[in-house]
């Protein structure tokens, strides 16, 4: 039976090594969390998180959310002339005429009664306003040449009221708002939905109920002689004077066009350049280095920076946005395609070379089939991604849905328009995602996506 000689100093050295490594790992177990904690504390001070929390106004967020999914109708009485107007959002172009007032507004002479959703009601007449609050009592307001006075029942929350010598405001949650000045009295009534999204006040279909619209589609007489009711409805919806669906969908198409031109243009330019950057296709080291640094430069500069530079050179417009996407994606595609070229199976190319195939034939039948899955997958993914990015780029260069989105946000009042545009962008992105997935299955697997 044989024995194995061992070094008596081997075990102590191994023990010291194990203990040393264990100590370092235990130390890192404390140092790493402390480092992360220190960074988070620094970031909290650098980003002024405490100040941001102090400046947060939840009431502004509530108003924004309410304006995104609902609208206000203003009923205004001129305290001098006695004229009363009913308008959505107080806009003149969205004013009801006296013969087509909403059902919750009734007029008797110079007196106007506004029924509110919670059972409350406001009665307006020149210089007088009465707010009958359900379960709370009655607020009477008088506006005269010397100011505005009001009598308020006991028990109303103080945050509902705002009063001065020249103005009185009361806002009842779930009901509405009454504002009275020396010159006018106004009631604001909120309702769910996007007002006049289907038909504006100039369309005869706006004043029809949904059952009446259904009957007009099926068997009703022509609303406009010589034009079918379906055609008239589609025309009135498309040329809606409040929502401008025709302009919105044209802008949406511009956004998609920017993404399409930029993405496919980058792929067309990036693929030939990728052959110059691949080690197995370009033996010249300096040329390969130069092309790779070009790719780094193009994709290293963000698309928004390219947008600003190009807008100074070419002016605003959708084409400028397309060029910005093209430059950034050329660098991205060039890098991805060159790496795919370096990982191809050389045996297929050697087999074609042995049959006498020239360089073009070897590329067509030996190279492209191998990298086609990468090209298709990356192309479709970038197209989907650039559809979102084109919205932001369009806001900078004045093109596409991004421009309309920016204009609506600047007003600080048209939040329902902002919601509409965001919904359209989301629907476009989801459509592009579904379409790209279907195309990927068709082109790469040859079967439908389940």
TrEMBL record:
Keywords: Membrane, Transmembrane, Transmembrane helix, Transport. The chain crosses the membrane at residues 27-47, 256-278, 390-412, 418-439. Gene3D superfamilies: MetI-like. It is found in: Cell membrane. One of its GO terms (cellular component) is plasma membrane. It holds the Pfam family BPD_transp_1. The keyword Plastid does not apply. One of its GO terms (molecular function) is ABC-type phosphonate transporter activity. Residues 252-436 form the ABC transmembrane type-1 domain. It is a multi-pass membrane protein. It comes from the Bacteria. Belongs to the binding-protein-dependent transport system permease family. NCBIfam families: PhnE (TIGR01097). This is Phosphonate ABC transporter permease. It comes from Paenirhodobacter enshiensis.
């Amino acid at each position: 039976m044989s024995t194995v000689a061992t070094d008596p100093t081997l075990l102590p050295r191994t023990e010291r090594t194990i203990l040393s490594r264990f100590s370092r790992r235990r130390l890192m177990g404390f140092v790493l969390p402390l480092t992360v904690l220190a960074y988070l504390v620094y970031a909290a001070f650098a980003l002024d998180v405490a100040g941001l929390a102090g400046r947060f106004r939840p009431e502004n967020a509530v108003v924004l959310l309410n304006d995104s999914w609902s609208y206000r109708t203003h009923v205004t009485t001129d305290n001098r002339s006695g004229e009363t107007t009913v308008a959505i959002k107080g806009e003149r172009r969205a004013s009801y005429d006296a013969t087509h007032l909403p059902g919750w507004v009734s007029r008797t002479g110079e007196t106007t009664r506004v029924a509110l959703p919670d059972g409350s009601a406001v009665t307006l007449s020149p210089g007088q306003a009465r707010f009958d609050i359900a379960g709370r009592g009655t607020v009477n307001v008088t506006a005269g040449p010397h100011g505005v006075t009001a009598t308020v029942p006991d028990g109303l929350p103080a945050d509902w009221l705002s009063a001065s010598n020249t103005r009185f405001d009361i806002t009842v949650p779930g009901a509405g708002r009454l504002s009275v000045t020396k010159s006018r009295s106004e009631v604001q009534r909120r309702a769910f939905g996007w007002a006049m999204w289907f038909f504006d006040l100039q369309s005869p279909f706006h004043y029809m109920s949904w059952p009446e619209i259904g009957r007009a589609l099926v068997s009703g007489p022509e609303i406009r002689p010589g034009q079918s009711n379906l055609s008239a409805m589609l025309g009135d919806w498309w040329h809606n004077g409040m929502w401008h669906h025709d302009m919105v969908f044209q802008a949406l198409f511009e956004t998609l066009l920017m993404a399409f031109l930029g993405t496919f243009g980058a792929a067309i330019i990036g693929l030939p350049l990728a052959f110059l950057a691949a080690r197995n296709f370009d033996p010249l080291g300096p040329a390969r280095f130069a092309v790779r640094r070009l790719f780094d430069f193009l994709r290293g500069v963000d698309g928004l920076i390219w947008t600003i530079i190009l807008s100074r050179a070419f002016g605003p417009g959708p084409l400028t946005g397309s060029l910005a996407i093209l430059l950034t994606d050329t660098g991205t595609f060039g890098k991805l395609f060159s790496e795919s070229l370096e990982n191809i199976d050389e045996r297929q190319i050697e087999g074609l070379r042995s049959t006498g195939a020239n360089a073009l034939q070897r590329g067509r039948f030996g190279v492209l089939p191998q990298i086609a899955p990468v090209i298709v997958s990356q192309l479709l993914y970038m197209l989907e991604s650039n559809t979102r990015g084109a919205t932001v780029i369009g806001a900078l260069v004045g093109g596409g849905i991004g421009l309309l989105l920016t204009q609506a946000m600047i007003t600080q009042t048209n939040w329902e328009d902002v919601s509409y545009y965001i919904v359209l962008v989301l629907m476009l992105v989801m459509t592009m995602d579904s379409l790209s997935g279907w195309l990927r299955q068709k082109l790469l697997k040859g079967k439908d996506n389940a």
